[in-house]
Amino acid sequence: MKAETRNVLLKAYAQLHQITEELYSASDKAVENNDFEDASLLASRADRLYEEIENLEIVISEQEEI
Length: 66
Known about the structure:
There is one protein chain. The protein has helices at residues 3-32, 36-65. The protein is an all-alpha fold. The protein has one domain (3-65). Helix 1 runs antiparallel to helix 2. The longest helix is centred in the N-terminal third of the chain and has 30 residues, at 3-32. It is elongated and about 50 Å long.
């Protein structure tokens, strides 16, 4: 994998990680405010992004092995 591609993937990984943390944090705050519908929505979106982070991590590590 070219260095530029690796750098873009790592940047996307870091940004998705930050967004995911923000979504989980917002979900926790929604729970504190008894807004369970929003909390569920936020946590669900965070879960999906977390799955994408895991997939990106696998792609990056597999490409580094080549």
